[in-house]
Amino acid sequence: MSKYILNADLNSPVHSNFIGNAAVYHGYAGMEDANGRIYTEEQCELEADRAAELGVKIARTMYKQRFAEYNEQTGKWDFNTHNMNCFIKWCERLQKRGIDVAIQAGWNNPGCINGTSWNYHIPDGENLDFKVAIAGYVEWVIQTLKYLVFEKGLTNVKYLIMFTESQNGAGILPKGYNHCYDTWCDAVEAVHNRLVKENMRHLFKMVGPNEGSTISSIMVKSVAERTKDYIDVFSSHNYLGSWAGENSGFALGETNIVLKVAGGRIQQNVLVEPNTDYEMTITIKAFAENDKYVSGNILFGAFEPDNFLQGNYFSAGGEPTTRLNLKSTKMVDATELTTDWLEFSHTFNTGDASEVCIGVFGDIKPDEMGAYLKKVVVTKKGEDKNLLNNPDFADPNLCYLADTPFKTSKWGWLSMSAGLASSNAYYDWHRWVKTALQYVPEGKEFWFDEYNVNGMHMDKHYDTIYATRLAAAMLALMTSGAQTSIMWTLFDQLWPNSHSEGRDCWHDGEHCWGVMPTLFKSKTPHPSFYATGLMFKYMGGSEGTKVYELTGGDPIFGAITVSPEGKIGIAVINTFDGERDFELNLSKTLGGVKLKKRIYNPATIKPDEEAKQLSPIGEIVVDNKLSDTIPSYAVVVYSNID
Questions:
Q1: How far apart are CA 313 and CA 263, in angstroms?
Q2: Per-residue pLDDT tens for 239-273?
């Protein structure tokens, strides 16, 4: 068995102020539920104990206007309600356990400002003057913070998350606004100015826009300059789809489009000459070997140019098509695809069109089948110049979703139910962060404010390899340059009075995304509790903590954290099947530090209701070298953090 050589340059941290790993963890414990599904005080305390046992540094929580009651006559919010008191107790439990709180200053933009969303609704809210709506929204934020921090002494409430997935435009866009980016910017500026006026601005960091899930952080790019004087931490996020697993057969670091979901498509408008022949070539391959049950096709060619202002897509498959003309598209049967890269070409005539939509449409079944798209080329017949921007998808800056403003999206790839995937999921996480970091103004931090690994199937939580993938995501986000990342979610949680079912891991009102089931079901956590616990707790994080990336060992990845107080963590994760020997070489000595070794091994993990961190299995002394053997899909952390 060959040895994998890892290297760490301790002169070049990827981040010099890593504050630790965070998670979404809602303050719902003990709240009213019409069906009596209410945590007892003992369960409330146990849930908070589990958060402390994991070592989460920041909890990002939903905070709803209806936790309190608004008095129209006085213009004041009454916070002495049952649910608000439960929320206060939850904050107090976290404060006692050293966990900071990031509170949602509204969930929907602009719906939580003008009262036109599911989270905050007021009669006739769409006709409310938006300046009046913003003033009311800001008043709610300020009164909340004064109550939490000054009256209740909850100084662990330190962060304001400025809405969730702000680019979606949840709620009704008010009159006079062209895009929800603008409503978000106005709200951010108004909250900032009021905090300054109240001499409270220094107490809170404002985080946003919480953009997601988008191929590229285009909202961050669009709002960064306008809000750099108001926002302390810019943020966006994405989720690793089921298509983006390891062992895709790509070259190291290669990125391709994935057409897994039936109806997935990408498109780009190009300018053309009328009544002229053009040739289009796609390079494509199947996920897996075709069997007799595979069906469907890949359709590509020229379509009518779409109105990007309305977020339109070309139509194909199961509906009247918007192809440019009768012979402007070509269909490749799924049975023609192999696991080797193949080229398919098609020649079309533009007719009287001077602009066309170039599109690729995927419709392959069953679910485990699909295709990778490597490159798209469109040339005028007889010429070599490719008319497409970003033809090999190497630049995420030129890949967008439909909600992107027209001026920034028209000449890049637009996608629907399609994604980018790399040779290893580790690189997908890196790509998302590094793209966003290009847009973050100098002197500002960046958070990856939500993530998980494909939340469509609740049974994934019991998969021991899923636990490894989740820990690997935490690792990749640490080494990407983000100050922190926020896992969605820490625990499975009941949303009081909800009985939602189905998509997005809902089961009878329980949002089943966490590393532990609700305490209504069991005290025994999922395997991911133990894998992520190593990263949450024993990789540390605090003001001034430096992060160093371990390089050169793909499919083994790792990181080193060093705090100003000398707390050290070294994480190594094997993202593939098969035991591997590795050697870590450091550019300079750690001074013979003694580190305890803890390991998450998916082959041997046995969760129990005690839910304690994994015990050390030994101690090593690290100077400038570390050698060890790591099992298949294992997570190993060496640390002097207790």
A1: 11
A2: 886 544 555 677 776 788 888 888 888 888 889 99
